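Hi V.,

You were right to ask for the full record rather than a summary. Here it is.
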Amino acid sequence: MTQANTLLQQAESQCHIRGVRFTPIRRRVLELIAENGGGLKAYDLLDKLSTEHAAARPPTVYRALEFLIDQGLVHRIESLNAYVACACPEHAHGFQLLICRQCGYVEELHLDEISEQLVALAQRQGFKIERQTIELQGLCQRCRATS
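Predicted structure:
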């Protein structure tokens, strides 16, 4: 079973447990993102979807992405304005993203202690964090080896 299939099964299960609809469009958007391996932009998703669904329009894609983000199934890569499948969707957590600037590879880290320290620091400043995005850009091992 591929990683994309595993993520889709986890997503179906989570949506069922939460009582939210995992529509065919939402499923296909997640599948496209999961199969990509790196960040995928909304208009790239739209291009792929429009070949399969003639009625696919930007609002369709953005609504699906919003749902997938809300459910913790997809992360938005702020610096690239792209989306990547969550590697661990069954677990609510802080995350960090390693992003290769050369090949676009994205890896998700789960260093909860970093997220907890940032939340504690913000609370001491009287600030309530609503969303946390930590992106680390550089070169992956493969790209470093070929440079």
